[in-house]
């Protein structure tokens, strides 16, 4: 029988000796022997003590001719690093390591993750010790959306900076009543952004660590909304105006936070709320009197498109896999949506500010033109099968579908 050998030179315990010996032992089977050879007698004595302490046996210690000293160790049942499973190195096309590729390498998303799982990175070997945490979101299908990994990667690439990416100087010098109107609109938008922030943030900490793509997506969403709050708050105060926050907006946003079911919350926030917001932000980007406001709205609108896309993909996937969920979901959402003022139309204070903001003057013809742009050109639902009137999802959307039709499609 050939005995494995580990030359350690002048290495001392605590300076790499045990790391080298440990790694060599990990490559042996339990019961196999290893000769540790050293230039130092004390190192041999110390590594023997270390080995006993680490669950290995010491078979013997010897002076190995000349100035060499040796200890023969027998590998015990446990060795650090021995549990690492051999894998195949990944081949990455064009140097990009996408999250979908990571998922492909570590195996599919489990339909049900262990609620007691520790914080074990994907692909890592579990330590076998249970977590004292009990994760609340452990069902893949209650959370997932098609192409979630791609959505998360896109979100990371699309981040922008509210400090430097907005032409802030362009906002200076507006007429006082136009500035007041802009500040009121910005305050209203920032208020809504808070709801969009707290809803995903509350779910984020409940998600099982096995669902990495979901953690990435939600934290990207939360980061987007924090930046939206930042950029619209900055624009609101830039011209020296302090606008009132609207209590009715606060109350209606509270209904979003009361919804604890992930899918119902996604339908309310991502599909209905942010879907409506897309129109409002597009309107502001088009009609803002200054480039700072227009740029902020345009950049936020781009983020919201992603959020709406996630919402639709998630709700669609959930309902396809679980058709019985549909009736319950529609009921839950209709109850809450009925209390969401912003879905029934803009607050009059905000609507008036939008008119003044886009008119940019008090000339009656300018105001009339701006008023027509803010009001919907038709109050009838555009869904062919519906025909309901006066229940548009959004006031600023010239053509739209009513709430019931959004839920049905
Ligand atoms: Fe937002
Ligand atoms: Fe959003």
How large is the radius of gyration?
Answer: 31 Å
- Note the beta-strand portion: 5-15%
What is the makeup of the main sheet?
Answer: 4 strands, mixed
Query: What's the number of extended β-strand segments?
Result: 4
Terminal CA distance reads: 73 Å
On the 0-100 scale, what is the average pLDDT?
Answer: 86
State the helix count. 15
* Approximate helicity band: 40-55%
**Mass-distribution shape:** elongated
Question: Which sequence of SSEs, written as H and E, runs from N to C?
Answer: EHEHEEHHHHHHHHHHHHH
Which helices and strands occur, and which strands form pairs?
Layout: E1 4-7, H1 17-26, E2 33-38, H2 41-53, E3 57-63, E4 69-74, H3 99-106, H4 140-143, H5 148-157, H6 176-204, H7 212-238, H8 247-257, H9 262-287, H10 291-321, H11 325-339, H12 341-344, H13 348-359, H14 364-374, H15 403-408
Helix pairs in contact: 5-7, 6-7, 6-8, 6-9, 6-13, 7-10, 9-10, 9-11, 13-14
Structure write-up:
This protein has 15 helices and four strands. The chain is elongated, with a radius of gyration of 31 Å. Helix 9 packs across helix 11 and helix 13 packs across helix 14. It is mainly alpha-helical. The N and C termini lie far apart (73 Å). It has a four-stranded mixed beta sheet, with helices on one face. It has helices at 17-26, 41-53, 99-106, 140-143, 148-157, 176-204, 212-238, 247-257, 262-287, 291-321, 325-339, 341-344, 348-359, 364-374, 403-408; strands at 4-7, 33-38, 57-63, 69-74. The longest helix is centred in the C-terminal third of the chain and has 31 residues, at 291-321. It binds fe (ii) ion (2 copies).
